[in-house]
Protein 1
Amino acid sequence: MGFLVALGVFAAAIVLGIVFFSTGHVVLGIIAMLGSLPFALASWLKWADRGI
């Protein structure tokens, strides 16, 4: 379950980065793209600790 949550967070951050790029906010797009992996890892660890 934790893997699926991490995958969803990763995909949402990538989509957010694409939205920022398409609206002209290049720096925010880069930050969202680079920040997607740590947020996905943190969510995976958090959900893995719950044991669901």
Protein 2
Amino acid sequence: MLTLKESTLVLAKIRVHHGNAAITDLEARTFHEELRADMTLGEALEAVKRFYADNDSGRWCGSGDVNAIVRRMRNESKPSEAQIGRECERLGLVEDQAWLYRRQRMLGNGPDQAQQQALTMRNPFELPAAQPKSRSTASRFAGASRPGMASLGSMLGGA
């Protein structure tokens, strides 16, 4: 997640293209709030660079532009389903392991990290085995002999 200082740096890079105007506190905070929460500084700076490399209209780069470019960059870096299938075959992953591997790759993890997690994680949709409950009734009535506990006979008046 970008800090306020980092997002202000991104805004300053945008301002360089338009006369380097001073940035107010409100502008910096608003820009920071509008950026994706999971964006890194490197991604944001690269997005601004790509925006102005293709910009021939003179339009300013906004937070929405940065968010959209980062989303495109991430989608372009994701492997295709066919590529993930080939990776699973090469690694010998089947069923749950292949599903976990595919999930990790689509989340943006690299092949090595995805393989490690697929081989060590348990399936999140798999329920743990039920533990049998104790059926002993002796422990329920064992507490009657504790100090301060009256017997049933004394409570009923010796009946």
Protein 3
Amino acid sequence: MTETELLEKALHSSASIHQPHALKAFIAAQYLSVTLPDCDGLWLQVSELISKSELSVTGSISEMVEAPEFSEVRISRILSGGIYPAAYLALAQWYERKGFEDIFAHYIAEAASHSEYLSHNVTILLALNTVYQQLTVAQTTPFLNRMTEFLTSTFERNSSVVPSNPVKAPSFSELLEVSIKQPSFFGHNLITLAWLIRCEAMLNSEQLSKMSYHLYLQATSPLDDPDDALDITILNGIELISSEDEFHKKLSALIFDTCDNLHQVTLADALVYLQQQFPAKTANLSLIADYYHQWLKS
């Protein structure tokens, strides 16, 4: 399995639970391949993790459907209503008329307006934007199919209450502190923080402020699912170690010792990135890596 082959697999892998994660995992693997030493077998491991949770899709569905030209209003209604298979053509027509940047700008504004538990509305959208920048023309069609599935499962008519914006958004260091204390399911708060810092340039100041505030609320409020809380028994058995070499060993164990969940890769990538940004927190981030490694084995 090569990097190119993994991208092709991710482009033809769709969600079996809620939102498609394969392309986000591919991007995480790309980052890890550069930053983490001794990552032999990474592409194959991610491929096997994708097979565990995602559906394999042969061909491009939008090319199998015929539809009239939709108006902009109709495109919006089809996508927000999750009307299939019309949704595939609706997004393709939007792309042909205005380009991917227009689609991304619309939905990143939507993501900033609504807080979603685990923040997939933010992180997968940012990952998809990152993937798009490296695609060939031939890869655009299956990519737009996966984008369609993500958008319709995530941005359907949203009735969430939007919290008021804070006077001052929390800093990244403040977000790290609260996210370490309450990482949420499989470290999603830390994953979100890493993507916000990494993709800061993709966001305007208002969007970043709102997304940071939403993350702060999620990390400091009772969990939507109490089962996502850290297991104190496992946590108490882990020693704080500040060595960077030990940190990398913990990350390698998290990625390779089991093959259960795509977040083994997306979390490992986030932890590496955050450690680079906040080296003083190496011991805490190493603890998180070790915790989820032990949690998977328990």
Protein 4
Amino acid sequence: MQIKAFKHAKRVMQPSLVVNNILKRRSQSNNFVPDSTKSMQPLLEVPSTKRSSSKANKTFIHQDAYKLLVGSWNVGGITPPEQLNIDEWLDTQNHMVDIYVLGFQEIVPLNARNVLGSRNSRISLQWNSLIGAALNKTAYKLERAEQAEAGEPQKVYPLKEHKSVDAKESQHFQCIISKQMVGIYITVWIRTDLCHYIRHPSVSCVGSGIMGCLGNKGSVSVRFCLHETSFCFVCSHLASGGKEGNEKHRNADAAEILLRTKFPLGPLHNLPSKILDHDQVVWFGDLNYRIYLPEATTRSLVEKRQWSTLLDNDQLKAELNEGHVFEGWQEEAIEFAPTYKYNPNSDDYYDSNQNRKGKRMRSPAWCDRIIWFGKGLKQNQYSRGESRLSDHRPVRAIFTAQVMAYDI
């Protein structure tokens, strides 16, 4: 049970009044930040007639299946270049899904200024611009292909607006929620025609870093309902450290996030408030779990691509199997190389010079993970991207989600 994990939670010092004020202002906000207030107006108003709240008008309930992609990337505090190509990570050449949920860690360097100072949204806006351009560029290409096949005249739409003018709504995407806490950032993009069926979007931030509460580590979670099914997505950055015993700090962070994450109950007090109350939950991020093997052994097995032997000694799988954390959660089989730690702009794992003082060895590990909980989710893909931007490789998972909906 999850309460078992809570008993392992670390005891933290009571922070000063100043730290409490920082948390209230920056880490405990439940206000979502839309890409554009104007574009979110349908979500903020009274429900439309397409989803009347009167059960008398709901004649039949059925299941719809939607595809969603969840991606995670620790970008190491590096500002994204303007021409950064993220198509391979988003897998847009092979799959276009209905919902994209993307989480980042360390979008800014985790220094004192960024942890304690005011939030700098410039970098998160840059990431959102890249994502919008990538998704809608691909949607635009698909639309042109369909028009050519049908013999229709092709039209040009300005990509920078991230929206359709006369095009089919179903082929374009808009950001409905985005939220940043220090270096953790989550952004949700949904097919435009589905936005009418999104209700009660909200976010909850939990800081578990310095003094057990600041936002250099922790989570940003998003909640919304699609038709009659509730979703929760948890983007987190857990405690770091490659020493034996550090996994307990990561377990404690996860328990704190489960305990402290809280969403509004809604106008009728009938909405899920805690993470595990939702119908379908996906947790992802730099979970920082390492491998229980000597460094030389780990490197040798990585070179031989002996993933099964390495995974037999993976901290997260061991802690999960022993019931210390994430009991009842699922993870698809990992069939890709460890995502951490790489030399900058290289395909080589980090290997410090033994003769240089102050340099620590970092064994390869699957720090970046995607796990899930609840009924109605089926994971179809679990893979990694190959961008060399940071010392981590991005990961992605594609799911099919069964959603309950009413016929009106």
